[in-house]
Amino acid sequence: MIDKTIKKIQARKKLMGKIISVLNEKTLKVRVERKMTHPLYKKIIKSHKKYLVENDIPGLKVGNNVLIEECSPKSRSKNFKILKKV
Known about the structure:
With about 90 residues, the chain is mostly beta strands. The chain has one domain (about 15-85): CATH 2.40.50.140. The protein contains no helices and five strands. Strands 1-2-3-5-4 form a five-stranded mixed barrel.
């Protein structure tokens, strides 16, 4: 029999984005842009999403590019942390 208590381990999302706002010393707002090709018309479409991110690296400013990673929830809306400045 297969043991059903074994959970599948999923890889954490890693996204690259730009800091658009510094809310306080521990919270940043990061905009992540994605490009995809439309399946029928073959046009490249840009879309974006904003994430609230836990900040552990001092000295980050608006306009810096950063690499963020999914983590356990830090608050109601923060589910990502900063890995490094790019």
